[in-house]
Write a structure and sequence with these properties.
alpha+beta; Alpha-Beta Plaits; 3-stranded antiparallel sheet; 17 helices; 50% helix; binds zinc ion
Length: 386
């Protein structure tokens, strides 16, 4: 580690010009995957090593180190009164990080949740708008083409009654043509819209707007699924905005909505796990660093007045300085105490620490239905216990 810092300093001062030794050490650092890092990043190590190389080439040495270490400093916190356990991420914050890209969606989840919990809602739909791919098209050109189609399509959605929406873009190299690009929409429409008419109209329009200027087309129909009917405010939505670990809600509608929104807000893990060409990884990072992945429309664009959900989520993310923590403690409002890093908790639990095992058991008691962080944590703890 000292080596890495010294090499960084020499490069920054201009004493050294060759970046290779630093790149090699940072890639080595990235290769030493801890148990917890595997849980949060999944099987994306090849991609992450390439990103580290790319960052060094772009002279972003400090970020390269943070990226390689992302998750190693994550803390396990326990609530003083309720004994509930949660993870405090010490992430790198990069948009092209498998874990941090997931967390970036949290603000949007808070925003939508705050609207749904503040007042009654219309009927909610999940849609996927897929753009046909074009051979040899760059990722930037793919985006421009999509934006042009969207500009023509959005007024049609408004005309059909769209009240609010959350849009999230997904992008990955296509095996057939250039880049696969699609947009997930969680959309709110007035009660009683006729499904058949709505679908027919929107699907036809989408086909038209993505076909403009393109002769060769591999059109994929609009995907549209009804999530829930219009209904009263969903009060429990707000308390459940963690993306990796959360407890099952009592209300079925809330649970369903959480699943849908969570799915839509997924990070980049599954797209990069199978990215084969190095140049694709570089283009992807360049693109992700500059593009906004989530957008809100209509009512959901604005914050709910007087609601502190987002502020709270932000505060939970922020790393408190020692001084602030001491001050809070003196005021008597420290609620969460750090037990240890998640990695040392995993180690301690393996060597028989009851406190660590109990803390992990609590995390594992959260809700999950598929692969992902919790799924891997379960696998890891089972393996550690064997
Ligand atoms: Zn990260």
């Amino acid at each position: 580690m000292q080596d890495i810092d010294e090499l960084t300093l020499r490069l920054e001062r201009g004493t050294d010009e060759d970046e290779t030794p630093l790149a090699q050490r940072l890639v080595g650092l990235c290769s030493k995957l801890s148990g917890w890092q595997w849980c949060i990043h999944g099987d994306t190590q090849e991609f992450r090593k390439r990103v580290v190389k790319w960052l060094v080439k772009k002279q972003k040495y400090v970020l390269a180190k943070r990226y390689a270490l992302c998750g190693k400093g994550d803390l396990l916190l326990r609530h003083d009164a309720t004994k509930v356990v949660r993870v405090k991420p010490m992430g790198c914050g990069a948009r092209f990080c498998p874990r941090c890209s997931r967390r970036a969606g949290r603000k949007h989840l808070s925003r939508v949740a705050s609207h749904l919990s503040a007042s009654s809602h219309g009927s909610i739909w999940h849609m996927v708008l897929t753009q046909p791919g074009l051979q040899k098209e760059t990722i930037q050109a793919t985006r421009v083409r999509f934006e042009n189609a969207w500009k023509r399509f959005y007024p049609v959605l408004r005309k059909a009654g769209l009240q609010s929406a959350l849009a999230t873009y997904h992008v990955k190299p296509s095996t057939k043509y250039g880049w696969h690009y699609h947009c997930h929409l969680v959309a709110e429409f007035p009660e009683g819209v006729d499904e058949e008419t709505l679908y027919q109209g929107l699907n036809e329009r989408w086909r038209t707007v993505v076909s403009k200027d393109v002769s060769h087309l591999d059109y994929k129909d609009l995907f549209m699924r009804h999530v829930c009917d219009a209904g009263p405010a969903l009060e429990g939505m707000k308390d459940n905005t963690q993306l990796d670990f959360w407890s099952e809600s009592q209300d079925q509608v809330e649970t369903l909505l959480h699943y849908v929104i969570r799915d839509v807000l997924q990070g980049i893990e599954s797209w990069v796990a199978c990215m084969e060409r190095e140049q694709d990884c570089f283009d992807f990072c360049e693109f992700m660093g500059a593009a906004k992945r989530h957008r809100t429309y209509g009512k959901w664009r604005l914050k709910v007045k007087g609601d502190d959900t987002e502020a709270k989520a932000d505060a939970e993310e922020r790393a408190l300085s020692e001084a602030t923590r001491e001050k809070n403690k003196a005021k008597g409002d420290i609620e969460w105490s750090a037990l240890s890093t998640v990695d040392s908790c995993l180690r301690d639990s393996r060597s028989g620490s009851i406190e660590s095992s109990e803390a992990l058991k609590q995390l594992i008691g959260c809700t999950n239905r598929s692969k992902g962080v919790l799924f891997r944590l379960r696998k890891l703890t089972t393996w550690l216990a064997a």
